[in-house]
Design goal:
- The structure is a single chain.
- By secondary structure, the protein is α/β, with parallel strands linked by helices.
- Among the domains are: 70 residues, no CATH class; 156 residues, P-loop containing nucleotide triphosphate hydrolases (Rossmann fold, 3-Layer(aba) Sandwich), CATH 3.40.50.300; 84 residues, Magnesium chelatase subunit I, C-Terminal domain (Helicase, Ruva Protein, domain 3, Orthogonal Bundle).
- 39% of the residues lie in helices and 15% in strands.
- The protein contains 18 helices and 14 strands.
- A 5-stranded parallel sheet has the order 7-10-13-4-14, with helices on both faces.
- A hairpin with a 2-residue loop joins strand 11 and strand 12.
- The longest helix is centred in the C-terminal third of the chain and has 17 residues.
- It is globular, with a radius of gyration of 26 Å.
- GO terms for molecular function: ATP binding; ATP hydrolysis activity; magnesium chelatase activity.
- It is an enzyme of class 6 (ligase).
- Pathway: Porphyrin-containing compound metabolism; chlorophyll biosynthesis.
- Involved in chlorophyll biosynthesis. Catalyzes the insertion of magnesium ion into protoporphyrin IX to yield Mg-protoporphyrin IX. The reaction takes place in two steps, with an ATP-dependent activation followed by an ATP-dependent chelation step.
């Protein structure tokens, strides 16, 4: 038998000390509605179960000084078009709380190896930088021998990521100026004419996806327990929401379950994540740079999944003895005193960060001649590359490289640098085949462009 609703039982479930739960509860036995007041500027109303309450016209009690005391019971925060509605989140930390949390996390986080200190692996570093400059390239798949610094290089990007403007307290890192990357709450407030959104500046986030993650943890889910005990349909954002406008890194992506890889690649390609649970459909922006790494000895991805990665980087073991000694010595210095080691590369890191910020700002002004576009497409056609992703990614990567070098036009050298990374993983049609090293792409490139 279903338990009856009472203000006392509900109040016990709502902990005032928690920022993730409502702080006020207003319920009236003589009212046709029970009204919950949340710390965020949204209110949810749902019909009472008691027949006596339904017959009364007495308005519900609203605590003085709360937002519910000024807003009539309504379906604010809900969208019932076509049987779908967007569930608003109840957590809304203030700007001071968010800054304090970020500061504390920065002080306690593990020291990250500087990107500028990484020796060799130029192909991998270039692919990562181009994706940071233009996230629409579609991410990068890094395959190479174990112990070659794949994970270290990816995580070292954290220091180079530029700052972005985000709405305070929004779990989707919403952009206050771009509706395409706004969460459902922020989008609704903008549509209602709210111009007082609290905005702060934050670093682009990097989210690590563990191999044991479930689909609910990745995509998000509806909190059914809260719906049954508190009458609140609350959406719990997943890792895709956290990675919006950031980077999602999957180490050993070739060992991840295929259905999770499908979810990640679909969201990365469309820029949206849709969750279907218990008759509820929720969509939120999920625009992120997908970076995967793996060891080819443990298996390759299916060709259909490889094609969804914008670029492919191959990492090999350094064979030069002098270079290997330098890498070992640099790593020993970092392990001995990480703070001093990071400070020794501070100027180089700052210079590279400014170069990335400048390239992101000037990317829109970079032009590529029509003749070069035609030759790129001719290379893709003669290599029998399926679809048009190869053409699109090569154009984007060449423009990003020109912006990184401070130019406003793409040259043949730019295309020659990026086209092997954009096409070689698209030549693999049979799952039993190995990925071409790029020789076929380079030969065809010189044949067409000569």
């Amino acid at each position: 038998m279903a338990s009856t609703f009472s203000p006392t039982s509900a109040a016990r479930a709502l902990l005032p000390g928690s920022t993730s739960r409502p702080l006020f509860l207003a319920a009236s036995a003589s009212s046709g509605n029970r009204h919950l007041t949340f710390p965020s500027p949204y209110s949810l109303c749902f019909p009472a179960r008691s027949s006596a309450s339904a017959e009364s016209n007495t308005p519900p009690y609203r605590p003085p000084g709360t937002l519910a005391g000024r807003i009539q019971p309504s379906r604010k925060g809900l969208d019932f078009r076509r049987g779908r509605f967007t569930v608003c989140n109840v957590a809304a930390p203030t700007a001071a709380e968010q800054e304090a949390t970020a500061s504390a996390a920065k002080e306690t986080q593990r020291p990250v190896y500087p990107f500028a200190a990484i020796v060799g692996q130029d192909e991998m570093k270039l692919c990562l930088l181009l994706n940071v400059i233009d996230p629409k390239i579609g991410g990068v798949m890094i395959m190479g021998d174990r112990g070659t610094g794949k994970s270290t290089t990816v995580r070292s990007l954290v220091d180079l990521l530029p700052d972005i403007r985000v709405v305070v307290g929004d779990p989707f890192n919403s952009d206050p100026d771009d509706p395409e990357v706004m969460g459902p709450e922020v989008r609704q407030r903008v549509l209602q004419g709210d111009t007082g959104l609290p905005v702060t500046t934050a670093k682009i986030t990097m989210v690590d996806l563990p191999l044991g993650a479930t689909e609910d943890r990745v995509c998000g889910t509806i909190d059914i327990e809260k719906a049954l005990t508190e009458g609140v349909k609350a959406f719990e954002p997943g890792l895709l929401a956290k990675a919006n406008r950031g980077i999602l890194y999957v180490d050993e992506v070739n060992l991840l379950d295929d259905h999770l890889v499908d979810v990640l690649l679909d969201s990365a390609a469309s820029g949206w994540n849709t969750v279907e649970r218990e008759g509820i459909s929720i969509s939120h922006p999920a625009r992120f740079i997908l970076i995967g790494s793996g060891n080819p000895e443990e298996g390759e991805l299916r060709p259909q999944l490889l094609d969804r990665f914008g670029m492919h980087a191959q990492v090999g073991t350094v064979r030069d003895a002098e270079l290997r000694v330098k890498i070992v010595e640099e790593r020993a210095r970092f392990d001995r005193d990480p703070k001093t080691f990071r400070e020794s590369y501070h100027d180089e890191q700052e210079k590279l960060q400014q170069q990335i910020s400048s390239a992101r700002s000037n990317l829109g002004a970079v032009q590529i001649d029509h003749d070069l576009r035609v030759k790129i497409s001719k290379v893709c056609s003669e290599l029998n590359v399926d679809g048009l992703r190869g053409d699109i990614v090569t154009n984007r990567a060449a423009k990003a490289l020109a912006a990184l070098k401070g130019r406003d036009s793409v040259t043949v050298e730019d295309i020659a640098t990026v086209i092997p990374n954009c096409l070689r993983h698209r030549l693999r049609k049979d799952p039993l085949e190995s990925i071409d090293s790029g020789l076929l792409v380079i030969e065809k490139f010189y044949e067409v462009f000569s």
